[in-house]
Amino acid sequence: MNFPDELRYRHTHEWCLLADDGTVAIGITQHAQSELGDVVYVELPDIGTAFKAGDAAVVIESVKAAADVFAPISGSVVARNDDLTDHPELINEAPYGKGWLYRLQPDNASELDALMSADDYRQSLDNADTP
Amino acid sequence: MPYIPNTPDDVSYMLSALGVTDIEELFSEIPETVRLAEIEGLGSGLNESDIAALMKQRARNDEGRICFTGAGAYDHYIPAPIGHLLQRGEFYSAYTPYQAEASQGTLQIIYEFQTLISRLMAMPIANASLYDGASALAEAVLMVVRSSHGKKRTCLVPESLHPFYRQTLTSIVGQQDIHCASVPFDEKTGLLNPDVLHHYAEDDACALIIGQPNGFGHLEAVDDLTDQAHKLGMAVIGVVNPLAMSVIKPPGQWGSAGADIACGDGQPLGLPLSSGGPYFGFLCAQKPYLRQIPGRIVGRTHDAEGRNGFVLTLQAREQHIRRARATSNICTNQGLMLMAATFYMALMGSEGMEKTMAASHIHTHDLRQRLCSIVGVEPVFDSPYMYETLIRLPIAPAPVLEALAAQNIEGGWNVEPFHPQLGHVILVCATEMRTHDHIERYHAALAALLNP
């Protein structure tokens, strides 16, 4: 499975990408979309909503479950991917690209350091698979 | 499902497995203050023959009286096939069928119910029913609050809405930090005045509730009210009599954009009065509210071989999957009751329902004229009504209604306790079942009581 090196990962299967302007794009991982199955609906937060790391920020509904997506870091929502309203399948097709969920203005960008690297995240999935 | 009683040995075995000594310990979480020590009026057990005698006596209370009472439940004719179809064992469950492969017949009927009721309301979506009309209204308010992400928490409730609906609404949403603001009715018409709505629409007002007909049986100015409410940033919830929607404008067509949610009680659609239930609630909505709808929704799909089939759909938002963060706590529907309504709508068709309503309207018009020809009896409001209206008596209603009941006439509903400012008023109704002779008997009995 593909886990790009430039991203940071949370154990609840979200990814973060720090952009040049200081905002952070957030989505769910290849692993998460594959576990959820076909996504049919996404409920995104309003611009301006403030989250603490670990707050439920997004609801993703698939054919088999409705799952909360947690904020990996604290911050305020500055953008959201409204294309998902009509095309929720983008999350399955391009979880790291057109399937991004929202962008945060982080309260403290150093919170990103507490998240996992691609290797650590891959390792955590392998460990979880071991019976 | 069999009822399996536990022996004292079973009980102590289970308790020891749990590590507790007394069943009461399992309920220790529940504070004493909310516990009911005993239920008033509930006697001790009866044997089979005593129960049979009691139930026969209760059943007799439902028969033999000429009914001029509506107030939310109406004495309409129920076509004979409905009772026969309901007694088929295949349908004989009140519960939602989870197992699609074993429940295609039931699921298809629910799907057809949703189709029929949403057409009647002129709305795109319906759920598989709720417990009753008043709790459906509370669910509708919760839908609107949820879709504001919980930020707007006031709903405007007309004082002309049925008092039981207002009470049920307050007891359900009042516990969830949602405020119900009362909007008075015009004293002459008994109706809401669209021009004064803005006085009651606080910043966090999210919904206006409109009864059609309202709790007095009269017809609200739904178009103006809907447009005004939308202008003020509120959603519109229509609480309607479904049978009446066959002849008057349904909620989906109110104003320029239509109401947002329609709900009400399904009893007029082929359900017997049965001393007050079981009935069922229906709930329809516009598309933006799709994922806020509580309860079950049946959808049509096809299987691997391309054959049509019916399944529960949009379940992912519900309690058995989403647990504490589910859309609602509604886990079931009123299966058997909605079946009766589906059969009723299918058997009557739009023409049959229109004729039923037309006859009911004419009979109520005749009833009002006849009763108001008695000295001291007068109409209360001068606005249009459907098949129910308020009349004012010269003396307190309660003893009058009792005396009428003694002559096997169910003379109406005493509204005075709920609206004392209106005086000695009763709500009277004449469905298509009331004949000229019935109305004359009521007239004669009331005239004799009031002017002996």
Q: How are the SSEs placed, and which strands pair?
A:
The complex is a heterodimer of chains A (131) and B (452).
Chain A: E1 8-9, E2 14-18, E3 24-28, H1 30-36, E4 39-43, E5 50-51, E6 56-62, E7 66-70, E8 75-80, H2 83-86, H3 90-93, E9 102-106, H4 118-129
Antiparallel strand pairs in A: 1-2, 2-3, 3-9, 4-6, 5-8, 6-7, 8-9
Chain B: H1 8-18, H2 23-26, H3 48-61, E1 66-67, H4 80-86, H5 104-121, E2 125-126, H6 133-147, E3 154-158, H7 163-173, E4 179-183, E5 205-212, H8 222-231, E6 235-240, E7 261-265, E8 281-285, E9 297-302, E10 308-313, H9 319-322, H10 335-371, E11 378-379, E12 388-392, H11 397-406, E13 409-410, E14 413-414, E15 425-429, H12 436-450
Parallel strand pairs in B: 1-13, 3-4, 3-5, 5-6, 6-7
Antiparallel strand pairs in B: 2-8, 7-8, 9-10, 11-12, 12-15, 14-15
Helix pairs in contact in B: 4-10, 5-10, 6-7, 10-12
Keywords:
heterodimer; A: 131 residues; alpha+beta; OB fold (Dihydrolipoamide Acetyltransferase, E2P); six-stranded antiparallel β-sheet; three-stranded antiparallel β-sheet; 9 strands; 21% helix; globular; B: 452 residues; alpha/beta; Aspartate Aminotransferase, domain 2; Aspartate Aminotransferase, domain 1; 2 domains; seven-stranded mixed β-sheet; four-stranded antiparallel β-sheet; 12 helices
